[in-house]
Amino acid sequence: MNIQRAQEIFQSTKSITVFHNGESIWIEKLDPSTNTAYVRAMSGEKNVLVSELQEVH
Q1: Distance, CA of 53 to CA of 8 (rounded, Å)
Q2: What domains sit in the chain, N to C, each tagged with a CATH number?
Q3: How confident is the model over 2-56, as pLDDT tens digits?
Q4: What is the pTM of this model?
Q5: With the CA atoms of 43, 49, 19 and 38 taken in that order, what torsion angle do they form, in degrees rounded to the nearest 10?
Q6: Contacts for 8 with CB less than 8 Å, ≥ 6 apart
Q7: Can you spell out the DSSP letters for 1-57?
Q8: What is the per-residue pLDDT for 4?
């Protein structure tokens, strides 16, 4: 995923399913300067590269 799409998902009022390494996540914050996202998952909270996020259609 690219940072622009991550920002669209983050700002959306719709529920959009996003995964990181096969685990469903919720985007908490985005940092365009480092192309990273702070995400929340069942396994905990972490910083990940936005390019590692996958949107499920």
Answers
A1: 13
A2: 3-55 (2.30.30)
A3: 999 999 999 999 999 999 999 999 999 999 999 999 999 999 999 999 999 999 9
A4: 0.91
A5: 50
A6: none
A7: --HHHHHHHHH-SS---EEETTEEEEEEEEETTTTEEEEEETTEEEEEEGGGEEE--
A8: 97
